[in-house]
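During the no-cost extension, the postdoctoral fellow (Dr. R.K.) reprocessed legacy sequence entries with the updated structure-token encoder. One reprocessed record is reproduced below for audit purposes.
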Amino acid sequence: MSRNFMGIYTIWLRDVRRFWRDKPRIIGATIQPALFLFLLGTGLGRGIVGAFGNDIQGDYLTFIYPGIIGMSILFTSIFSAISIVWDREIGFLKEVMVAPIARWAVAVGKAFGGSTVAVFQGCLMLFFAPFVNVHINLTMIAALIPLMLLIAFSITSLGIVTAARMHSMQGFQVIMNFLVLPMFFLSGAMFPITNLPKWMDIFIAINPLTYGVDALRGVILGMNNYPLIMDVGLIAGFGIVMIGIAMVIFGKRE
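Re-encoded structure tokens follow.
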């Protein structure tokens, strides 16, 4: 068992070091959410507040700020799984799979590595809070970090499940774009999820990021559509299912 824990730690450390040394990736992953927040948010804010009326309380940039944090976690988490496809192409994954550790430890290590990177990116977005009239205190940060870790772990596990059966980076990117954009736009990150058509309500309800954004908005702004315990429970349940599937997939022979 100690070998498995060491294997998890080693894989986690490799992913974190790879991210930390890739400064352009850090900069790019920070600028993209910032552009959504200030450029798209400012443009949409001129018309969308009037369209949704009392569903948006206060300034639009303030409203979407938790959603942009969720977007940063989503993009970083799910695309961190692309390293699995890359490692398979260069043969590194095969070497890891024959190491003297349980194969499920590889999936868990990858999940923790991607989660840690995503939480770091989410924390970087907290520095933009003063620019959107949001006050972040230490109590909020103490609640946000484990919440972001839970969201990141669940989404990273989803990416790992997808990447585990992909054999080309091009194919993975197509599938991820097909998943990521609907997950983001149907999460309530950019607009309220009340009084929408019934068919949208279905997709919103089955979207795990919906509950992540709702929990973030509840902690930061005190605005919830669902009880916080429900948000956390559903995100945790989704993460357990996804990491379980990932462990089963990695447990099978390549």
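DSSP finds eleven helices and no strands in the chain. Residues 2-251 form one domain. The remaining legacy entries will be reprocessed before the final report is submitted.
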